[in-house]
Amino acid sequence: MEDGWRHTADRERGGRRPTGAPRLRVVRHDGRVDTQGYSFDNASDQATAHHDALAGLLDGPTRAALTELGELTGRRCLEVAAGAGSIALWLAGRAAEVVATDIAPQHIPARPGLVVRREDIVTDQPPGTFDLVHARLVLGHLPRREEALRRMVAALRPGGALLIGEFAHPPADFVADAPDAATADLLIRYLAAHVATLTARGLDTGWARRAPAVFVDAGLTDVRSGTTADQWRGGDPGCRLLRAGIPQLRAALLTHGVTDADLTATMAALDDPRVVVNGFPFVQISGRAPANPA
User: Fold this and answer.
1) What sections of the sequence does the record tag as coiled-coil (predicted)?
2) What are the distances in angstroms from CA 194 to CA 135, 162, 243?
3) Taking the chain (294 residues) in consecutive chunks of 10 residues, what is each chunk's mean pLDDT?
4) Domain ranges for the chain
């Protein structure tokens, strides 16, 4: 192991790696962190709950879409904005090498075949070329999303595949069931504040629907998209994802028509199994680099 490589969390604490703890291969970079437009912080005390909910909600459809793109054995893969690394770890169990990048990669555990880099897709070209590039719930938040996508396309080997996943705009009939009218109204008002907050920070809820055309414009072929839209019951991963976001967004939410008491009540409602909401549509778009580029 090269001298100076240390688990990111240890490095940021200035501490030493605990005796017997696995080393995480974090490649040094210049330390730039650009969080413009992105609202959820890996350093938040809600980060673990946020990542766990995302994995529970989206890893199934993500793995299915990745599997449809072909055999992973012997392949080199890139996971952009890897978060806690659930998909990067899944890929690492199948591919020859996986590179996981994030602006704050401290939650990604060690595994053979997995290289972790502190990178920002807004400013950094991915390292090398790849047979598969995947990014989930990141481009829609970024101010220069099309530029970031083109960086990913440029990292594809001939015939390589790009897959992104994004939430589309929440459904108008958000509340499917609630214990009473007051709870339904609360959830509707919370959703409006949630969307307004993220939109003000740069989220483009129409990006998922426009992305296929951008794939084509970027030179990708065999462009496809598919949508998963499920109901989320209180306490299930979708509602836990919304709940984990409230403490992180609280100050901004309060400027969009909800009170602190509303937010506390919303968190309780999202834990209530009597609550059922129509979840955000999850759109996955894939395309391939030409096998024989001109």
Assistant:
1) none
2) 22, 29, 11
3) 28 32 34 43 73 97 98 98 97 97 92 95 93 98 95 98 98 97 99 97 95 98 98 98 96 97 99 99 98 73
4) 8-170+203-230+281-288
Q: Which CATH number does the domain 8-170+203-230+281-288 belong to among 3.40.50.150, 3.40.50.300, 3.40.50.620, 1.10.10.10?
A: 3.40.50.150
Task: Print the SS3 string covering the chain.
Answer: CCCCCCCHHHHHHCCCCCCCCCCCCEECCCCCCCCCCCCCCCCCCCHHHHHHHHHHHHHHHHHHHHHHCCCCCCCEEEEECCCCCHHHHHHHCCCCEEEEEECCCCCCCCCCCEEEEECCCCCCCCCCCEEEEEEECCHHHCCCHHHHHHHHHHCEEEEEEEEEEEECCCCCCCEEECCCHHHHHHHHHHHHHHHHHHHHCCCCCCHHHHHHHHHHHCCCEEEEEEEECCEEECCCHHHHHHHHHHHHHHHHHCCCCCCHHHHHHHHHHCCCCCCEEECCCEEEEEEECCCCCC
Strand extents, DSSP E, 119-189: 130-136, 156-167, 175-177
Sequence-distant (≥ 6) Cβ neighbours of residue 59 within 8 angstroms: 86, 87, 90
Query: CA 142, 148, 149 angle in degrees (round to 5)?
Result: 110
| Structure confidence at residue 47 (pLDDT) | 82
**What pLDDT is attached to residue 22?**
32
Q: What is the pTM of this model?
A: 0.85
